[in-house]
Amino acid sequence: MTSLSEGGPNGTFSNQEERAEQLAGKLVCDSVISDIGTTRGSVTFKINRDLLTRNVLQQISKDGSLYGLNTELFSELSRRKTIVEYSSPNIAKKFHVGHLRSTIIGNFIANLKQAVGNEVVRINYLGDWGLQFGLLGAGFSSFGSKEKLLANPLQHLFEVYVKVNTAAEKDNGIKLSAQEFLRRLEGGDPHALSLWMHFRDISIQEYAKIYKRLGAHFDDYSGESFYKEKSQEVLKQLESKGLLLKTDKGTVIDLSEEGNLSSYSTVMRSDGTSLYITRDVAAAVDRMERYNFDEMIYVTDKSQKNHFQQLFKILKIMGKDQADRCQHVPFGLVQGMKTRRGEVVFLEDVLDEARSRMLQNMAASETSKQLDDPSDTAEKIGIAALIVQDFKGQLVSDYHFDWDQALQSTGDTGVFLQYTHARLHSLQALRCPRDTEDFEIASLREPCVIATLQHLLRYDEVIYKCLEDLQPRYLVTYLLSLGHLANVAHRTLQVKGSSSEAAHARLLFFKNVQMVLGNGMKLLGITPVNNM
Fold this sequence. Notes:
Keywords: Aminoacyl-tRNA synthetase, ATP-binding, Ligase, Nucleotide-binding, Protein biosynthesis. The chain is built from 19 helices and 15 strands.
């Protein structure tokens, strides 16, 4: 509806109505506008619903997975090179639920950027260097077991790390041994490097199994270790520019505007070993040179906000223009994530719990179908539940996780989205073979169809909004609404017992709704199921 502006101080409502009627009288209906009228001083237009129905369904059928991504909204967007750094677990420490958030959020952002035509590089920047490796290297001979390491690498490395950490608090000798091991490692000692490489390799193999379950993949398994030498080059550059100051606690760079050390970052320990921030600077500089990126997005929890502010500030001080193209996407903490055995330690426990609970729910449901691989289906539905629960709110907000709520088959959940997708897919078994995509419009005039089609028209707007804010909640809300509209249409539109023309038109409608629903789910990182 188009409205005339309100009259000024001397204007009257009757004048506005008169002007609206005059304007309406000059307008002519055409193939798109079926009726023109006025109401309360506004000109109203009624769209030709048959044309809307035909155009939307034909457009979805034609575009398929690209529907909504090549409209005028995106015509001005330049195709860019995007780096997304996400997940980034610390070897020997917990691969926990925080890494789940980083993994699924980063995966969504990478999917989104790729969908609109960007060249995307997905980087997993492992915490594979630093003092925890000194502790691990020094402690493995006392607390480690080669057999346990082969049987369950992530858990055993974590157990060793916890034990040696506890021992180091009581025994200063162990702490000194850890520092010595780290110095040997940074000095290139063959034995230390061999042990480190073994720990790193088996950890990556285990991570890859978990990422496969989550549907995530990476183009580059980078890590802090790659930049141990380049971090020294960064320090030399900073020193040559007179930007470094030596203090009792180590070497620092002044980040304050006033030059009074009110804000600073420590870039080297007093014993000469490098720090996390120094290696991050080296990594950023290396990526600027190697990829010449248009944007680089870091996905980590919000506790690292200050770290990234310092990182970007150091890059600017170094004269790196691409510092302005770097962005931190922070996320909040998850509370209450427990398995039936107690507190979650490893991400794998969360995925196993989601699959186990979903299998139980499926077995108890009277509507569940016989499946070739119930465990695989339960896994996909469980992961959808985790993702939707996580993505419903602002990413930066903390939230309390509730298994029962997340795994409900009705309401706004990932299970509901999977259920709707499977239900729409099952309708296609009723489909009669047709050589043409032409269909009978008269069978698609119900209000539920028009409401669904109008919603489908908004898909590109929602994707664009997600691109602007890098927040998946807009897409989650959109897909849940689409699911509810699809279920209303499913209850309203009869397929069985209808004429072949009516059945064909309605099945085409449901097929296109399923396609857009599935496309959106895949962007979120969900693998749609066809049966459940």
